[in-house]
Write a structure and sequence with these properties.
The protein is an alpha+beta fold. Helices cover 44% and strands 16% of the residues. The protein has ten helices and six strands, in the order αααααβαααβαββαββ.
C-alpha cells in the first residue's frame, strides 16, 4: 500500500512538473540536481548541447527519493505545483516524511499521505505555505534573521524554525533554496 501511494504521488507529480531527471539518487545537503532540457531531445546532432541548470523547487522535492513523498502529495493536493515550479524565488523549509508521520501521529508514510489527502484543501494550503517565504535565503541568512513573513501571511520566528530542527541546508533550485527540516511547522 505504501509503495502504491508513493508511486501514485510521484506519477501525479511527474505529470505536473514536466521533464525531470529520473535519477533516484538521494540529495545531499550540498547537492544541486540538474533538469533535462526538452530542447536536448529535439536538437540536431551537430548543434551544441544546452547546459542543463538546476531543477525548480518541485523538481528537487520530486528527485529526493524517499524523503518528501508526503510533501509531494500535499503540494499536489493543495494546488501549489505552479507556485513552487515558477520563476519567482522562494525559500522552502521542507518537512521530511518522518516529520509528517510524527506530527500527524500515524504509523507510517502511507498513513501520513492518507491523512494529508483527507485534510481540507484550504487548511492544507495554509500549513504548506507556512513553510515558504519569498527570496533565496541561504542557511547563514536564515539563522541570522529574527523571523520571516511566510506565504500564508503569518510570521515564522527563528525560535520556531530552530525547534523544527534543520536536517540539511542550502539545496539550490533554479527558483530558490530548500532546507530540509525534521518537524512540520504549524501556523
Amino acid at each position: 500500500m505504501k509503495k502504491t501511494l508513493a508511486v501514485l504521488a510521484i506519477g501525479a507529480l511527474s505529470a505536473g512538473f514536466g521533464a525531470c531527471s529520473s535519477s533516484s539518487t538521494p540529495l545531499s545537503p550540498s547537492a544541486t540536481a540538474e533538469r533535462a532540457t526538452p530542447e536536448a531531445a529535439v536538437r540536431p546532432a551537430s548543434a551544441p548541447a544546452a547546459k542543463p541548470g538546476p531543477m525548480t523547487i518541485v523538481g528537487i522535492v520530486l528527485q529526493a527519493d524517499g524523503e518528501f513523498d508526503v510533501l509531494q502529495a500535499g503540494v499536489v493536493r493543495a494546488g501549489l505545483v505552479d507556485t513552487l515550479n515558477g520563476k519567482r524565488q522562494y525559500t522552502v523549509f521542507a518537512p521530511t516524511d518522518a516529520a509528517f508521520v510524527a506530527t500527524l501521529g500515524v504509523a507510517d508514510e502511507a498513513a501520513a499521505i492518507a491523512a494529508v489527502n483527507s485534510l481540507d484543501v484550504d487548511t492544507l494550503k495554509d500549513i504548506l505555505l507556512f513553510h515558504v517565504t519569498h527570496g533565496r535565503r541561504n542557511s547563514a541568512s536564515v539563522l541570522a534573521a529574527p523571523g520571516y513573513a511566510m506565504l500564508n501571511g503569518q510570521k515564522l520566528t527563528r525560535e520556531q524554525l530552530s525547534a523544527a530542527g534543520i536536517a540539511a541546508t542550502d539545496i539550490s533550485a533554479s527558483n530558490g533554496i530548500v532546507h530540509m527540516i525534521n518537524h512540520v511547522l504549524l501556523p
